[in-house]
Amino acid sequence: MNQVTASMAGNVWKVVVNEGDQVESGQDVVILESMKMEIPIAAETTGTVKELKVNEGDFVNEGDVIAVIE
Amino acid sequence: MMVKTEVHEELRERIEKGGAEKYHQKNAEKGKMFVRDRLKMLFDDDIDIEDAFFANCMDESLPADGVVTGMGKINGQTVCMMANDSTVKAGSWGKRTVEKIIRIQETAMKLEVPMLYLVDSAGARITDQIEMFPNRRGAGRIFYNQVKMSGRVPQVCLLFGPSAAGGAYIPAFCDIVVMVDGNASMYLGSPRMAEKVIGEKVTLEEMGGARMHCSVSGVGDVLVSSEQEAIEYAQKYLTYFPENFRSKPPVKDPIEPEQFEKSIRELIPENQNAPFDMYELIKRLIDQNSFCEIKREFAKELITGLGRINGQAVGIIANQPRMKGGVLFHDSADKAAKFIQLCDAFNIPLVFLADIPGFMIGTKVERAGIIRHGAKMISAMSEASVPKISVIVRKAYGAGLYAMAGPAFEPDVTIALPTAQIAVMGPEAAVNAVYANKIAELPEEERPAFIKEKQEEYKENIDIYRLASEMVIDDIVQPNDLRDHLTKRLEAYQSKNLTFTERKHGVYPV
């Protein structure tokens, strides 16, 4: 099990995967919006998206868990 | 005489073997090479000159007193080195160990050649403390010498094993620290000590492992998976450096950059807010396979590394929009400051590739001292007197422009790509800041049109051709011509000779 965490504080702009999706290491899971920039947050392992912990529009702080990959 | 010769040879053989066989085996199990094999691999031939080989030879259990010191050649260049032998009392330091290290440092200073530290040591021999710890030529002198040598000759640390307690400062004072994943570690107090003294339960890997130091603390610079990789990195790294601060880095034969289907023009998105991978731009600018990255795993929103443009060594400092939007954080500013100092000390020209929305804001970074760390970067960048080229790739907003060698910081040139945008802040933020009240007063359905209109006005106002007309920037270069342009500039600036200012030294915002 591997957690995908926010690399910096910001708003969740787009969630680009669904629960149950297969993702590769390096593939974007969500895109945050912070400092007026699009901040892609990628999975660090290959696996299945077990849980998405955020919705579009949510505020996340640095280190918050965004998704769980299994 | 005959007898003496035999004794001599016997002794020599014994010392060359290092410590007891069981320690050799233990090391081999961990993928650790014997110190003399490491040196053989590191040098063009082998160690050329060894000093104090017979140190402590009256004690059979301490061959060479646990450290090899001497000289050899790397890429044809003579270097001095010290290398711990962890088969001898875990590479710990006794009186003669320390004296040997101090002497080889003094030699490196006199000869003005690079100094390498191959570290694999448990630290001080507590039983010998009076002889090796507090005195004038005790272990403290090693660090004092390192500070004195810093910026005079390159100092490289290859960390193969532990570097404990006081010994952890050897890496800290080097220009660069290469750490072998799984074996290398640095810590002031061991996990056992941490548990005893402060009640913390932690593993060595978590507290002082190679991965942690190369990605979190930033004390390590390069994470490698084997000793061989560490040695190869050091060999490559040194090709970018002169032997000392008096000379210039060696120029190599030019090599064409790696070829890609996508050109630079196609690579860079026009939408300032969309990410792209800055490594892709770097690869298209530099000679093929010439990138030697420093701190790849640390503060990834900024890329720092050595490379060659048409054979000429350069230090590249580039924002990475793919990570954290390329925003500068306290750690990335700190990373930049050290890298700029490194290049400036050894006459390596600097190329800044700016694509930066600014410094990060918010409570977290303010508490981490982002202003202080940002000032550190700006201070190092200002003071750098090597050729300094600023390339505005896309946006350069606010203090981000300053930190990336903006026009006020006396770069030799500020070059913009047609996608460049220089402003205090981006159009979205600016319109928000200026017209917040006005927008709030408008009926909701009229707001988007108003915002769009004001953003367009703003964009026109900061148009890059307007800035070129005002001579804020010196040239606008087509993306696909950037490498050739940089080549010519770097060649032209070779004779740059600048004294930044006269004083003892600045009071730095460290």
From TrEMBL, chain A:
UniProt-listed InterPro entries: Biotin_Carboxyl_Carrier/Decarb, Biotin_lipoyl, Single_hybrid_motif
Lineage: Bacteria, Bacillati, Bacillota, Bacilli, Bacillales
Protein name listed in UniProt: Acetyl-CoA carboxylase biotin carboxyl carrier protein
Domain of life: Bacteria
Ranges for domain Lipoyl-binding: 1-70
Record keyword rRNA processing present: no
A Pfam cross-reference name: Biotin_lipoyl
Keywords annotated in UniProt: Biotin
Native source organism of the sequence: Piscibacillus halophilus
UniProtKB/TrEMBL annotation, chain B:
Residue ranges occupied by any CoA carboxyltransferase N-terminal domain in the UniProt entry: 1-253
InterPro entries tied to this protein: AcCoA_carboxyl_beta (IPR034733), ClpP/crotonase-like_dom_sf (IPR029045), COA_CT_C (IPR011763), COA_CT_N (IPR011762), MCCB/AccD1-like (IPR045190)
Molecular function in Gene Ontology: methylcrotonoyl-CoA carboxylase activity; transferase activity
GO terms classed as biological process: L-leucine catabolic process
Domain CoA carboxyltransferase C-terminal: 259-500
Database matches in Pfam families: Carboxyl_trans (PF01039)
UniProt xrefs under SUPFAM superfamilies: ClpP/crotonase
Keyword hit for Transferase: yes
Signal peptide per UniProt: none
Keywords (A to Z) from UniProt: Transferase
One GO CC annotation: methylcrotonoyl-CoA carboxylase complex
UniProt xrefs under PANTHER family: ACETYL, PROPIONYL, PYRUVATE, AND GLUTACONYL CARBOXYLASE-RELATED (PTHR22855), METHYLCROTONOYL-COA CARBOXYLASE BETA CHAIN, MITOCHONDRIAL (PTHR22855:SF13)
Name of the protein this chain belongs to: Acetyl-CoA carboxylase, carboxyltransferase component
Organism the protein comes from: Piscibacillus halophilus
